[in-house]
Amino acid sequence: MEEIKFAQLDQQQLEKINELEKTIGVTIVAYDSSSTSAQGSSAYESTNSNHPS
Fold this sequence. Notes:
- There is one protein chain.
- By secondary structure, the chain is an all-alpha fold.
- It has one domain.
- Helices cover 47% and strands 0% of the residues.
- It has two helices and no strands.
- It is elongated and about 35 Å long.
- The protein starts with 10 loop residues before the first helix and ends in a 5-residue tail after the last helix.
């Protein structure tokens, strides 16, 4: 089984996430994208490709 790691955030990134959490009212978990498989990454991209920008 693949290990998924939490992202290492600097103080500025952490502050932005905290602000966003307060704005949208949910808890945000930041993961290290280099620890996810290519299959999971492409699956995410393909599910979001149908949405207009």
